[in-house]
Design goal:
The complex is a heterodimer.
Chain A: H1 3-18, H2 24-36, H3 38-55, E1 57-59, H4 64-108, H5 114-144
Helix pairs in contact in A: 1-3, 2-3
Chain B: H1 2-7, H2 21-38, H3 42-64, H4 67-84, H5 94-109, E1 122-124, H6 134-153, H7 156-166, H8 172-179, H9 183-200, H10 203-206
Helix pairs in contact in B: 2-3, 3-4, 3-5, 3-7, 4-5, 6-9, 7-9, 8-9
Classes of the chains: A mainly alpha, B mainly alpha.
Chain lengths: 152, 207
C-alpha cells in the first residue's frame, strides 16, 4: 500500500469520527492522532463545518398540488402501460401467426421454384437467429455488466 | 499505524440482525400497506409510496440534477414498483429495493450528464425567527448554490453515498446495506465526496 493511499484511508477515518460512526477504540486512536497532527485537526474542523452547513439544508419538497397531479398521472400511466403491453403481446402473436402462414404458403406453393422456397425459409431462419442472438446478448449484459447503471 | 487500523477497523457496527425500533415500525407499516395493495386496495400502494415519495424525489433529484427529470424518474419508478410489487419478498426491507428502482429510473432519465441546472432545490432549515442580515443572506445563497453545483460534479458513486448520508439521513450501515457495498467503501466514498465539496464550497480557504 503506498503512502498517499494510506493517508487517504487514514483521513477517511476522520470523516467517520466526525459522523460518530467509529467504535470506541478507533475513536481513541483518532483522538490521539488529532492531539499530534495539526493537519488532521484542520481537516476535522473543515469536515465539521461542512456537516453543519449540510445539516442546515434540506431538499425542497415539491408543492402538494404537484403530488396530487402526480397521482392522477400515475394511474393513467399504469392503465396505458397495461394497454401497450396487451397491444404488443397481441401484435406479436398475430405477426408470428402471419409469418408462419406466409412460410407455409411459400413452402407448399408448387408455382414457386425450389430455390425461392429455400431462400425464403433461410431468410426467416436468419431473422429468428439474429433476434435470439440479440435478446440473449442483452440478457447476458444486463445480468453481468458492472457498469449498467452508468449513464452514457 | 492508521493504515493497519483502517484495514481492521470496526465502525459502530450493529449486529446484522439488529433493527432499530423506528426501522421495525417502518417495516411493519410497509408490510401492512403492501398486503393491502396485494389484496386489491390501491390505498395501500398510495400510503406506501407517500411515505417514501420525498426520499424517492431526493434520490432522483440528486442523480438527475433537476426537478423535471427527477419527477419523471419518480413517476417511472412508481409505475415500475406498481408492476413489480407482487414479486417483492415481504421478509426484505422495502427501502433498498425501492432505492434500486429509483436509481435506475433516474440514471436512465438523466439527459445532461449530471450537470445540475435550473433552480437550486436546496433550502435552509431556519431556526427560530432570526433573519440573516442582507450580507449573510447573500453568502448563504452563494453557499447553497455552490454546494448544489458541487454535488452535481461528484462522481455518481460518491454522489449517491453523500446524498444518502446527508439528505436521507441514513447511517453508514444502512447505506452499505442499501447499496450492497462494504461499510469501509461507504466511509471512503463519503470522505472523498466531502474533500471535493470542500473545495467547491471554498471551505479550504476559510480555515
Amino acid at each position: 500500500m503506498n503512502n498517499s493511499r494510506q493517508n487517504r484511508e487514514d483521513d477517511a477515518l476522520l470523516s467517520a469520527y466526525v459522523d460518530g460512526e467509529l467504535g470506541p477504540q478507533e475513536a481513541d486512536a483518532v483522538e490521539k492522532r488529532l492531539a499530534e497532527d495539526e493537519r488532521a485537526r484542520l481537516l476535522v474542523e473543515q469536515l465539521r463545518r461542512m456537516k453543519e452547513i449540510t445539516g442546515a439544508m434540506r431538499i425542497k419538497d415539491p408543492p402538494r398540488e404537484e403530488w396530487e397531479r402526480f397521482w392522477q398521472v400515475h394511474y393513467n400511466r399504469v392503465e396505458r402501460s397495461l394497454g401497450w403491453l396487451l397491444f404488443a403481446t397481441g401484435g406479436l402473436v398475430v405477426l408470428a401467426w402471419a409469418a408462419l402462414s406466409l412460410i407455409n404458403a411459400i413452402w407448399n406453393s408448387t408455382a414457386l421454384p425450389a430455390l425461392v422456397r429455400w431462400g425464403s425459409v433461410a431468410a426467416v431462419a436468419g431473422v429468428v437467429v439474429l433476434l435470439v442472438s440479440v435478446v440473449r446478448e442483452r440478457w447476458h449484459v444486463r445480468r453481468t455488466t458492472r457498469y449498467k447503471d452508468i449513464a452514457r | 499505524m492508521f493504515g493497519l487500523l483502517f484495514s481492521s477497523f470496526s465502525l459502530n457496527k450493529p449486529d446484522p440482525a439488529e433493527v432499530s425500533p423506528l426501522q421495525t415500525e417502518e417495516r411493519d407499516g410497509d408490510r401492512r400497506d403492501i398486503k393491502l395493495f396485494l389484496a386489491g386496495q390501491d390505498r395501500g400502494f398510495e400510503d406506501l409510496m407517500n411515505r417514501y415519495r420525498q426520499s424517492a424525489y431526493g434520490i432522483a433529484l440528486g442523480l438527475t440534477g433537476n426537478h423535471d427529470d427527477a419527477m419523471d424518474a419518480v413517476q417511472r419508478a412508481f409505475i415500475s414498483v406498481h408492476r413489480s410489487l407482487p414479486r417483492f419478498r415481504l421478509a426484505e426491507p422495502f427501502f433498498p429495493w425501492l432505492y434500486r428502482i429509483v436509481r435506475n429510473a433516474a440514471l436512465n432519465q438523466r439527459r445532461n450528464e449530471g450537470r445540475h441546472r435550473g433552480d437550486v432545490p436546496l433550502e435552509w432549515v431556519r431556526q427560530g425567527d432570526g433573519r440573516p442580515d442582507p450580507l449573510q443572506q447573500t453568502e448563504a445563497e452563494d453557499l447553497r448554490r455552490r454546494l448544489w453545483e458541487g454535488i452535481g460534479e461528484l462522481p455518481p458513486a460518491q454522489r449517491e453515498v453523500f446524498l444518502l448520508y446527508h439528505f436521507q439521513g441514513l447511517k453508514y450501515r444502512r447505506i452499505a446495506d442499501t447499496l450492497g457495498i462494504p461499510i469501509g467503501t461507504v466511509m471512503s466514498r463519503l470522505h472523498n465526496a466531502r474533500l471535493q465539496l470542500r473545495q467547491a464550497m471554498g471551505l479550504e480557504s476559510e480555515s
